[in-house]
Design a protein that fits this description.
4 copies of one chain form a homotetramer. By secondary structure, chain A is of the alpha+beta class. Chain A contains 18 helices and 26 strands. Chain A is globular, with a radius of gyration of 23 Å. At the C-D interface, helix 2, helix 3, helix 4 and helix 12 of C face helix 2, helix 3, helix 4 and helix 12 of D.
């Protein structure tokens, strides 16, 4: 099992895809808490397909279930839900690798505190997680997972404050990076978003009960109402009162920075029907395609999306250019859990496991391929080759985002910088030759800003997080740049 | 496990979807026979996602592997392929239910004959399978599966002919219905298509070695060349000769009827990039949308496909009508294996497990929904409701195929006739009210014929199989209409 | 999974153990039919630990469950039993290897006949199974398992008789060898024992309902009453009558030979508390030890059984010799399913996985080891070595059965003749040296006959089956000695 | 799965058996460390059959594997061992229930300390574990398991000492109760035994490398030499030196109490071939039988052990009384993992799943049944009934240990005191009537002391731990008797 790799994971190994690490969902005071959490996580499945966990509290006891695989593989049958009783629930879905250790790292994590149990789950990454881990181990803490979430638990446990909420805020104040975090105790559901607002988190409501989740699509699936985005640097504490009512207490314990939502949520991660930062993602992507058509027009016969990511931009490109939109590439959605390229002798099939050319729309035609982004370019290369083999006269690539030069440290898994296409070639012409296209153009950073927010980038105070394109990191990077001379930790491996 | 149902299966129970039963793939004389078969089956996965089997022969022994689940879940890691050595291989993918019995029914089936082993696999259904089964049981045969394929094996085993090919033809002559069948022996790969050519089967070639498969997309994935369609009523016998060359012997042992390919392959089953009967499926579907726009135009702001089936027709409809094509419904591709609607109290979510409305493209708009077909209408009803909740001003449904009135007996799993939408309502207006749309129109039978074949239906000699729309069955229906007074068979149930 | 081997299987590979292939159990007309069958099979678990199957009929339908593993691993929870409703049931437990093919071969086997379904299960082996298989395949039958049981099904299916009972007898008449067989139809439970009575089969009764099983211990566990042994060559047909009563019809369709029960049932296979052929097995084994002490006395300090097989004989030996009986070897009963000797470098541990020396009873002592039988002698060699390392002054081996020279063809899995200890050495002294004992003696054939039946062997008409010791096979051996010039069958392998 | 219960677990639920919680094994500096640990744990399997774990260190990294089930089910195939490289290893086997939580609690536990990783495993129980847990949680520690072992880890992590050994000793000093503990770091293997020496721990040697394990049988299986018992209150620190040699440093950091080994190790837990506290367990048990025959003689025809526990005492009883020893009860060793009594209507079978009467040795006889101990008496009751049904004229029970009145707090899982047979009846006569025997006698406490240690109990300073018989607990019981007014901890349940 451990040797098998899904096509998705293979892509990851090839370094030609990006991964968001998580989606979170929480609800307070609802009799169907676990079932609603399962549905919410299902709607957030695109943010992580490899494992999911749910914690509930039923007034007496906390319950948890953690499983490798899709939410829909495990969490929705009555037998599993019956193991998650209670009216408070938080859940987490992530991408990860297989095995026992992974399961140990699956969130939410739980800890027994003096004041009672607490469970937390987060999306994103801490830029000082390792630094803090070393500090608390030095003072006698035991870390059993390799997850930064555990560090947060330790900070909560060690806080001198009495109330859980204050302890949570105490911990949050020490963490740096980009994250959206949910916590639950015996009576509370707490939501927090990082000071810069890099990762998204929204607040909704169902039957008068508060909900927090990564994207609005998780509200839509259960018919919940969108209330507002959790603000950057905000902590919202919802608590069931003795009379059954729910109090909501919103605080800004840290001095917030100007909000800078991650542009990659718009480019790639968020579901097209979600509203992120008040903007419909599908509309933003269509705008990217429209702006791309304006910036880099091309004479062609068909606009073909690289499915599914490139489809909205392709629709925008087609509408702006007047060139017909056609499904020139068909995606195979049945890739399976362990699909690997069968044998060395037939490895070349590669991309065809997921994509196939629709020859009737390609043959003899000048094709504009629209993709959402290019990471290493190896997939693009194979797709161009496939399109040419299907008889295209010309193949032009238009990418609905700028070139990627820099790694992320806020929860997006990026390949090493020197593996990025943009860093491997001196200029666009060289990239174009590598990929084998007749022309290659990327959306400009201002084109992207305008597609998402209506205005071009403000260099003095950029409206969004965009370091992968620009190198402008929205926070300091302590683990990366700090003192790393302390001895390396032992590692416990379980290959289960 | 047995109580859980995937969303797909749930749909089936609701009776609001159609299922093709199978895809087949075979190759003769290639060193990577099993790996190529696995890839071919992967490309045919849309024809059956629940189980797959492969048989190979390595010059000494036959090998078989059968598994529940996707091809990509099992068949492509080196360990599994290592259990399938040899240069001759046939494979089969099917939709089915879980459990041990199902595994017993998974094709290919194998039998030890006096002249050596034979394995067979088929797509489609025999209209006299039960009649023949009774006859052979009456003369002392033992049936261990409930699959009609086993009946074919018995007919082969009982044939008085000496050569396997003649025995196969002897069996084929006795079978009625719509089918594409592959057989393999120690030296031969045999392909057969029913006399009316209801189910598709194509011949291809890779490195000079013959391949047969249900659709051309299975050739494309391995870079094989399409040679020609197997003709209706044709049996093609490929054999490895002592000198290593391959002989190909095409026969027409039965008096063929005029070919009548199943229209539902174009409407729903075949992959859009496949070429069926010489016609690109995507083009045919776009034409259906174009003809639909001409036949039943509507004033609207957006054309929205019910994904993924309705997308090509929606593109055609949008191009023909000038109304913009938009992704107003987002499909969740991570449905999972056991997704069920969690609890009675929240059952209403239903369709949202797979589809969600993209509010930004719907709100305040007049929406034309394009679907490929309507079976019972229960899904359409939920989708219309979801679109209305997203704020649509008007919802018009345009269906890219005619109304379905009659069950199929050639391998498509249809609900009981009285459950079909068209049979539950006196007229279109009543259907429209049931579904809750502002207007509802179906493509005419002639509109469909023209979309697929360029000409309208010839009532004297219809060019395609279309009984589900017209009641005109292309063959007699012996099991259904014949003498059914013989005692009912015992049934062996294994709920494993 | 396929590479792992249990210690038992390892022994088998080493060729140093014998295996009985099966135990059978059937009951007619009892509301707890499946549960009682599961309990009966549990009591017969020593006759086959690797797989078990049960078939029931509930008045409408047959049900079957087949599982690899112990009866107690699967068959006794309410969920599994709920899948086996009905008042007629037969079950089978066997030793076998793992994997899908094995499951396909697990009995009972079922067939749909013109007159209704029939399920059969048997213990033992047919000496003309392959010959008959070839004959029926030559006339068009399809064999899907490699089990001889399937051949019986075919003979039943092909019989010209009308009634199932007559068809069953027709089939039985054609089978040769040593077997006990159960069959069930919609109303009948049929039991048959081979003409020579090689394999055991007893009839019992619970709540007035007939039961058949391999040994009386399966009656004891459910509190059923022993009625009598099924006689050699007898077929007993029990049928539920329309008024609910049960008719019992005993026939002798074949001219029976004198009964010759397999001596190895007494020496090794049967459970010590069973009564086989009217004789308590524990008493017979104690007698073997008593006779052994008389035939081959030895001066020693302790009598130590090789557990568990040698224990009853050791008790007898100790009582007859006056030497104290002590547990000088402790058996580890937790061997596990996949225990293999860990690495090449520490392979020598071998026997210690199952046995360890109890030094306090060994050190400085003259030890008489009592074992039930010696097959290849490799285990004996390791045990002697272990006993010597524990400090024994002398190690004498006394074996409670004669030397084994000849293979079995009636359901006991024996190693190739040239691997048997007795065939690898010219004389007893050489065997003794090989094993490393100070002395080695086997019970005489007459000593064994007297221990079991009270009288010495009648060479003119031996009272028991004893060919492994004497070469005197009780039946002809058609498959082994007959015409084997017909072409070898293809083999279908599934390595699952 | 969660509803199924093995017969063993069922016994436990019935409260009619005792369970030791663990066996431990560790080795330092051997190239086959993991394989030897697996073999050692296999030999200790009788101390816990439900789960096992192994940790190794290979000079760079720690590795761990934890599995539910028998050691022989998982740990001995090359694939698993390959995941446990290195020359330092400790392992643990335990009895426990199924599920994910259990796996989380399976030892050894590991923690990352500032000075490097440490893994620990222990047998026994801490009488102040909960008290300490509350204290450390109050000061900010996070507990993720419910195992007391984790508390030890925390104490080590929080110690102000620099060296791991000193930290370990610091932790040990704070723990109270009865335990044997192993710890391993990157260079050290540390063994510790509680100050009273309640639980056993021995030191051995293989190829010059130190080994620690619960019983000598774990040395025997790998051919290791017994060196000595770890003394009560002793900590032995073995360390690989830079030159590859191994230093051994034995300390007595706590003021040791007089040693009092747990008598139940002799009565029930230890394997008969083990040497515990310098005394062979089989000999001790035979002596119990001999003393029992002297204290409570009875006129009878056969001495029958309740297998397997009662067998050594029965041999002793038979030798001392001159009454023949016979296997009047046969044990079924194939009980299976999930065996439950099938249905309510046939629940009465009960004990027969594991035991059956050997009628030939019982019928018409006066039977003395020898059992090792009686807990609740429910099993004894069923066995007496079974023996009577098999035709015994008289049934006398002789128990080779005294009556049990008091619960254990040192690692033996005992039922509530009021469920114990001895506490439910006013006198022996009442117990005898309850069980249905003709007579019932227990070994006296002095008889037991003499059987084990040669001398009668010294009331002023008892030589052994015997509170279950006498109420004389060897340590204070802080958790039980201390201040329990602090708030109850939340509990995290995972029903996996």
């Amino acid at each position: 099992m451990t040797h098998l790799r899904s096509a998705e994971i293979q892509d990851e190994i090839d370094g030609d895809t990006l991964h968001e690490e998580c989606g979170v969902f929480g609800i307070l005071g609802h009799p169907d808490a676990a079932a609603l959490t399962a549905l919410g996580l299902h709607a957030l499945q695109h943010r992580g397909q490899e494992a999911a966990g749910i914690v509930t509290f039923d007034g007496k006891q906390f319950y948890t279930e953690k499983r490798m695989g899709l939410v829909g593989d495990h969490y929705t049958d009555p037998a599993t839900l019956a193991k998650l009783p209670g009216t408070i629930s938080i859940g987490h879905t992530r991408y990860s690798t297989t095995g026992e250790v992974a399961l140990r790292n699956v969130q939410p994590l739980f800890a027994e505190l003096e004041v009672g149990g607490i469970a937390i789950a987060h999306n994103g990454n801490f830029t000082n997680g390792l630094t803090l881990r070393r500090q608390i181990i030095a003072t006698g803490a035991i870390c059993q997972s390799t997850s930064d979430t555990e560090v947060v638990l330790h900070l909560i446990a060690r806080s001198r404050h009495t109330s859980t909420a204050d302890r949570f805020i105490d911990a949050i104040r020490q963490m740096e990076g980009g994250y959206s975090m949910l916590a639950m105790t015996r009576t509370k559901l707490i939501a927090a978003r990082d000071p810069t607002g890099i990762r998204p988190l929204v607040m909704g409501e169902l039957d008068g009960k508060p909900i927090f989740c990564s994207e609005t699509c998780a509200l839509d699936i259960i018919g919940a109402k969108y209330i507002r985005d959790v603000e950057n640097g905000e902590v919202i504490i919802c608590e069931i009162q003795p009379d059954g009512s729910i109090s909501i207490d919103a605080r800004k314990p840290v001095n917030p920075q100007p909000e800078r939502l991650c542009l990659f949520e718009y480019v790639y991660f968020a579901r097209p029907d979600s509203v992120v930062g008040g903007r419909n993602v599908y509309v933003a992507r269509k705008n990217m395609g429209i702006n791309l058509a304006k910036e880099s027009p091309v004479e062609a016969d068909v606009v073909v999306p690289v499915p599914d990511g490139g489809t909205p931009a392709a629709i925008g490109f087609a509408q702006a250019s007047g060139i017909p939109f056609e499904l020139g590439i068909i995606r195979n959605h049945y890739v399976g859990r362990t699909f690997i390229e069968p044998t060395q002798s037939i490895r070349a099939f590669g991309v065809k496991l997921k994509h196939s050319a629709n020859r009737a729309m390609i043959e003899g035609k000048r094709v504009v391929l629209i993709d959402d982004s290019i990471v290493r370019g190896t997939t693009s290369l194979k797709i161009v080759q496939m399109i040419r083999e299907a008889g295209a006269r010309e193949v032009h690539i238009r990418v609905a985002s700028p070139m990627i030069y820099h790694p992320d440290f806020y929860g997006i898994d990026t390949p090493d910088a020197d593996k990025l296409l943009a860093n491997q070639h001196a200029d666009l012409a060289s990239m174009c030759r590598f990929i084998g296209a007749d022309s290659l153009e990327f959306l400009s950073i201002d084109g992207l800003y305008r597609a998402v927010g209506g205005e071009k980038r403000n260099p003095a105070r950029p409206q969004f997080t965009d370091h992968y394109f620009t190198g402008d990191y929205p926070t300091r990077l302590l683990d990366k740049n700090g003192d790393n001379t302390s001895p390396k930790l032992s590692m416990l491996a379980s290959k289960g």
